[in-house]
Amino acid sequence: MNCIAKEKLLGVISLTAFLIKMVSSTLLFHKSMQTFATFDTDLTPIGSPFLLCKMSMVLPYTLICAIYCVLSTFQNKPGGMTLETNFYICFSFSCIFEAACASVWAHSWIVPAFILICSSLLCQAAALYQAFTRMYYAKNTVDLRISTLWFNRIFIQSSLIFDFAWNSVLAILVLAVVLFKNIGISPFQASAVALAIFAIGLLTWFLIQNFVIEKFVRFTGAEYIAISIAITSLLPSDKISASIFQSLLFLLTMVVMLLFLRLFSIMYLERRRKVRSEVYFLAQI
Questions:
Q1: 27 FRET partner, CA 20 to 30 A, in 4, 20, 99, 154?
Q2: Can you tell me the distance from the alpha carbon of 97 to that of 119, in angstroms, rounded to the nearest whole number?
């Protein structure tokens, strides 16, 4: 099997894996809500608003990514770009792990669900790495069309990191349940620890994104939008304690501030790149 045929086959497999994940999440929607309602922690008393947003926003957006990944394998024209084999493998495994997580969570198997959602996140992170580095090196070595660049940024990079951010919040919700049911700490302590871990991880990502790997993740900020929506979907419940409610509001405020800082960073760095390009062009005259 030649490389082109293999990429097309992997693209179809990745789309099939995503459809399995989508169908699994849809069919197990009500059981997943019941599981969230069963484990009454301060952070995850009810999962319905959170899961409804997942079904109505995150999955359709990621479906576009899966379809575009398949279509990109048929781009043989100059200026097109196909993804690496490892991307399709990582993306497919992330979908399978998430579908399995939905199944075991619906049966109230808490620890296996946490392991599976973490495995899905690792595969998503690997797929994101492949997507970001592939486009960075491709645009510096191949004459890519502007449309190809932006299609990849919007329909692959942004949709994947949107889904990754949402699943990160989901992992924190499951972690709170694990700490409460399996470790034995109080619901408030479990929720507080989970939120603290998430806040530290988010700040760490912001620093890495803007000061370490910025050249790879240009124009990327969809994760902050996803986290803002995810946290907002947790607020309506009347079972959340006052302290956790205030913590969620503080975290939401922090995420919105990071979003604006990220937008400012993108505009500032892009402006500086244009100035440098103009100076370099004038120096060549």
A1: 154
A2: 7
d(C-alpha 239, C-alpha 249), whole Å: 15
Q: List, in sequence order, the alpha helices (H) in the chain.
A: 3-27, 29-38, 48-53, 59-72, 85-106, 110-141, 146-152, 159-178, 187-211, 222-234, 242-284
- What are 47's two structure tokens? 């999962």
In the chain, what's the furthest Cα-to-Cα distance?
71
Task: Give residue limits of the domains in the chain.
Answer: 3-284
Backbone angles phi, psi at 43, to 5 degrees: -95, -35
Q: Supply 104's token pair.
A: 């075991």
Q: How far apart are CA 285 and CA 274, in angstroms?
A: 17
Tokens representing 65 are 């990514």
**What is the full per-residue pLDDT of the chain (285 aa) written as tens digits?**
566 677 788 888 998 999 999 899 888 877 887 887 787 777 765 556 777 788 788 888 888 888 888 887 776 554 455 678 889 999 999 999 999 999 999 888 999 999 999 999 999 999 999 999 988 887 766 666 777 788 888 888 999 999 999 999 999 989 999 998 888 888 888 889 999 999 999 999 999 999 999 889 988 999 999 999 988 888 876 667 788 888 999 999 999 999 999 999 989 888 877 766 555 544 555
**DSSP SS3 for 47:** coil
Taking alpha carbons only, the member of 133, 136, 158 closest to residue 262 is 158
Contact 71, 1 (CB under 8 A): no
Query: How many C-beta atoms lie closer than 10 Å to residue 242's C-beta?
Result: 8
pTM: 0.90
Token pair listed for 160: 């994947």
Pair 63, 22: CB distance under 8 Å = yes
